[in-house]
TrEMBL record:
The keyword Transport applies. The chain crosses the membrane at residues 6-23, 32-48, 87-108, 167-187, 193-212, 248-275, 281-301, 334-355, 375-393. Residues 193-391 form the Concentrative nucleoside transporter C-terminal domain. The keyword Repeat does not apply. It is found in: Cell membrane. It holds the Pfam family Gate. This is Nucleoside permease.
Amino acid sequence: MTSILHFILSLVVICGLAILASNNRRGIRPRYIIQLLVIQIGLAWFFLSSDVGEGFVRGFANIFQYLLGYARHGTEFVFGGMMEGGLAFFFLQVLCPIIFISALIGILQHIKVLPLVIRAIGTVLSKVNGMGKLESFNAVSSLVLGQSENFIAYKDILNKMSDRRMYTMAATAMSTVSMSIVGAYMTMLDPKYVIVALVLNMFGTFVVLSLINPYEVDKEEDIQMNNLHEGQSFFEMLGEYILAGFKVALIVAAMLIGFIALIAMVNGIFSAVFGVDFETILGYVFYPFAWILGIPADEALKVGGIMAVKLVSNEFVAMDSLTKIIGELSPRSIAILSVFLVSFANFSSIGIVAGAIKGLNEKQGNTVARFGLKLLYGSTLVSFLSGAVVGLIV
């Protein structure tokens, strides 16, 4: 009963905050929102509480464990004994597998499997979310290809998109995560929560966007996803994806070094001046939101602090913070927080998404940059919604 009350309260707060920022309240269509919420709850129950769903999650997680094992062979060949602990452990064990997963995604794209999957799932999504096929395809391609690579698929039609449609496209990219990085998450979080978050975020994005940015599609654009890397040979494509994966690993490593150092410095300054560190202060700011989601009151301060760290830095810094206190949290708190952390909703993503689009179309890139904070606002609400749904089930 308590879980239901917390879910209802969470839903009221999340929907209220979304409507508060809505640019077209009269255009909100409750039928699609209710439909998507029911699907979210059903999927969360299926993956977390049913034998079949739990078996599927275990199987999917095992596939990634095998892939991470294969990735380890390549890393060991280059770095040898450095794999076992030491200063480079995180980069080698957590980030280097991104290179191998990126290569696999490139192969599936090259042999035309991914375009078929994206079109099939996108078409089904468009039937239940009340949005266009373009928005639905984008939700799936963002999940598979990632924030930057994803928009290449739409480069020929970016100039035809309205501001509202661009907001939806960019917000979707921030609310999901790339499959190439999922294996890295699974080394830090329980794999089942990573998988559940991937699915819930996809549907939660449409719930929040239906409130913040409702509109009707007048014309569907033709999407030629098969032309993403047209004209490249197999090995040209493979080299490109391997280098792209390495670039992502280096970017994540650089961001971690910078953000962790800055947070440590700010914590030191706040502790010296105010007698309390910065993360604790952020914890108080996010405390009520953590409690609303169903986090026990005696754990909400710690959980709220990690939620805030994820927002101001990135999900890897927050996941690292979670691993340090995981023994102090209840299974319910771990489940809700883990799902909350699996998204690209943070300040640095604003620049990544806007920059990726600007590289393809300067006008639309500037458009996305202008509503950057609103992008972060909406994608953070998606994370809260996914956490709320999990809190109802666990």
